[in-house]
Amino acid sequence: MLMRWMxxxxxxxxxxxxxxxxxxxxxxxxxxxxxxxxxxxxWHKNPERIGHGTGGRWVVENGVISGEQDxxxxxxxxxxxxxxxxxxxxxxxxxxxxxxxxSGLFVxxxxxxxxxxxxxxxxxxxNVGHIYGEGTxxxxxxxxxxxxxxxxxxxxxxxxxxxxxxxxxxxxxxSDEWLKAWKVNEWIxxxxxxxxxxxxxxLGSMA
Length: 207
Known about the structure:
Oligomer: single chain
Order of helices and strands: EEEEEEEEEEEEEEEHH
Number of helices: 2
């Protein structure tokens, strides 16, 4: 059965901050929110230290979940995961990462942070939207990296370049076309042998 969920959080790996807004419990398309807009009920941080840290700091402020390192700037991040595990679903998410954040959306995740990660590496030589095998061998589908131009401490322009070293993935558009359309990903998990660790179980948390 395909289920539709509106998910409002992501991992906090590094950088300054990330926030996600709540949506109504359901909408006309049949999506059901898994964030109540008021609390972190139904969510938990990684229970033990992982590569990203001991868990980071997550709070609900003005109807959004906001995350940062704990303490800020320390490099000690972490992941916030759903208590419930999901199998087949469609996912609708709103994120507002600060420029410079190194984060991601984890699906089919476990408490150790192993997952399929949609990258939210919103920084120079980063990437947003492509798939990375977190804790699964490091496979990824990113053909391009993003770069930012800043003025007076504010991001004023984004541009993209081919990933270096080159990814074996064959892009279907140029870097300019990708950035203009923000063509994110067209990827079949079974095509990656490195994903075998997660192919054994299609059930996991969203984080």
